[in-house]
Amino acid sequence: MKLDSSIAAVVTGGASGLGAATARRLAAQGVKVAIFDLNADLGESLARDLGGVFCQVDVTSDTDVDAALARARSRHGQERVLVNCAGIGNATKTASRDKASGEIRHFPLAGFDRIIQVNLVATFRCIAKSAAGMLTLPPLADGERGAIVNTASVAAQDGQMGQSAYSASKAGIVGMTLPIARDLMGEGIRVNTILPGIFNTPLLQAAPDHVKAALAESVPFPKRLGDPDEYAQLVEVMITNGYFNGESVRLDGAIRMAPR
């Protein structure tokens, strides 16, 4: 797929971090970008800078996603590109003992479910609704109608202590990538997933310098945090390379996460 002003894209979690870098890279190619996010201040500012549209949306809500897609399509037309970057994380052990009191606790199931709903179910929600819209589009070269890129994490394969919910949610994204690509292959819609390692997103930017230095040192090569635009570069390749389909690819400087 050639990226230009004839292409409309939706980027969930597009107001900051990996999503914002992706929105900027797509807009630089002339793509009409719709940013889906809860953060209205950041989202509206970025949309103005890019000449795009911002939609305040909770991706766990059918109503919100439907309304956001309708707003984006009224401005830009039906999207041919969907990039799913919205997600959350936490760190809670499955069961643990308080060292001071001896109290035994377990991971609250509501907290586990929240991670699954935001990271996994909402990703599928956006894929299904966007793909249904893409089916209405006329095919391009090779019969292509659209391209979808999802965001998992290296935690899908080597999750650390306290990441049971997060790892499960991201492993679910990896696990559904090929079946969804197969579901949509007859309609010319490609589906791929990126598993990012440690990237210099706003969450890490707020960490102390010594913490960031230690994280950078843990990366085999290059010994630094990933730049969000490096993620966006891979998104661009997955969209523009028509033979890229059904793949889940690590982008991590060869890191393999330790248990803690």
UniProtKB/TrEMBL annotation:
InterPro entries in the record, alphabetically?
Answer: NAD(P)-bd_dom_sf (IPR036291), Sc_DH/Rdtase_CS (IPR020904), SDR_fam (IPR002347)
Record's signal peptide = none
GO MF, one annotated term? oxidoreductase activity
**Short name of one Pfam family for this protein?**
adh_short
The keyword Oxidoreductase is annotated on this UniProt entry: yes
Give the record's family classification.
Answer: Belongs to the short-chain dehydrogenases/reductases (SDR) family.
Q: What is this protein called?
A: SDR family NAD(P)-dependent oxidoreductase
